[in-house]
Design brief:
With about 270 residues, the chain is α/β, with parallel strands linked by helices. The chain has a single domain, classed as P-loop containing nucleotide triphosphate hydrolases (Rossmann fold, 3-Layer(aba) Sandwich). About 30% of the residues lie in helices and about 25% in strands. It has 7 helices and 11 strands. Helix 3 packs across helix 4 and helix 3 runs parallel beside helix 5. The protein binds adenosine-5'-triphosphate and magnesium ion. The site of adenosine-5'-triphosphate (ATP) has 11 residues, from helix 1.
Length: about 270
């Protein structure tokens, strides 16, 4: 990979503390992480290890207490909240662990919301929202209110909203956590497609089957990166055969070519 362009994301000694005095602990403990443009990373690790905390900082929704965060080679630490919001609306799509849909807006209005910040006309916004809802098989629910949807449908709406802006960085916190196998595939194929088009994806998941879509798998433990492994992305026919729901046992045939795994450079 060319070294001319800086990494899309670079963290150096990133630390986030919660609590005071004896109760203080590091939710993130001196995390060093370099993400190049076009990587598809899955982050795994036990509950409480700091995955959401990390994603919130990457998405400029929260700030670290120590260390440095460089986005496209530029430090974001000293930028104002307003500037963070602008960068987010131009560059970053976030799928939250809790969907964060706005209850007084319809499904289509929720999805069109990020486009408001781009100064786009309402009709154009709704057309774009409608298009992306179609790809998530939600056309019939466009004018429902969020509370009229099932959990899985809400999650797909939240994902559509994160993607409508065509962000170059997509941060997703357990986007398939509540979905059945079929819906999980729709979401993962959409993310995989975005990855193929050169976007950078960071996906938090508890489901090891989803790592087949990723080019790099990071395991976290106690606020630190415990392992960081790169591997080639599985071809589509291989991934679609895999069941995605956590309870299902994986019984895929072994590929004729052994998958090379090598330790990522620190
Ligand atoms: N606002 C907060 N105030 C205090 N402690 C917090 C806060 N947010 C997170 N923490 C703590 O930071 C640690 C990391 O939390 P985080 O939400 O990042 O975990 P996670 O890896 O996403 O877990 P899960 O898999 O359950 O979503 C936890 O111990 C949590 O209790
Ligand atoms: Mg979390």
């Amino acid at each position: 990979m060319s070294k001319k362009t800086p990494p899309v994301i670079e963290l150096r000694g990133l630390t986030k503390r919660y609590g005071m005095g004896d109760a203080q602990h590091n939710a993130l403990d001196e995390v060093d992480l370099t993400i190049e443009k076009g990587e598809f990373i899955t982050i795994m690790g036990p509950s409480g290890c700091g995955k959401t905390t990390l994603l919130n900082i990457l998405g400029l929704l929260d700030r670290s207490d120590d260390g440095e965060y460089l986005l496209d080679g530029k430090s974001v630490e000293t930028l104002s909240n307003a500037r963070h919001a602008r960068i987010r609306s131009q560059q970053i799509g976030i799928v939250f662990q809790s969907f964060n849909l706005i209850n007084r807006l319809t499904v289509i209005e929720n999805v069109a919301l990020p486009l408001t910040y781009k100064g786009m006309f309402r009709t154009k916004r709704l057309i774009m929202a409608s298009d992306i809802l179609k790809s998530f098989h939600l056309s019939e629910r466009e004018y429902y209110m969020p509370w009229q949807l099932s959990g899985g449908q809400m999650q797909r709406v939240a994902i559509a909203r994160a993607l409508v802006n065509n962000p170059s960085i997509i941060l997703a916190d357990e986007p398939t956590g509540n979905l059945d196998s079929k819906s999980s595939h729709i979401v993962m194929e959409e993310l995989s497609d975005l990855h193929k088009r050169g976007n950078t994806i960071v996906l938090v998941t508890h489901n090891p089957n989803l790592t087949t879509y990723a080019s790099r798998v990071i395991h976290m433990l106690d606020g630190k990166i415990a392992s960081d492994t790169k591997h080639p992305v599985a071809v589509e026919s291989e991934t679609v055969k895999k069941p995605l729901n956590k309870t299902t046992k994986v019984t895929t045939k072994k590929s004729t070519k052994p998958r090379k795994r090598k330790q990522a450079k620190k």
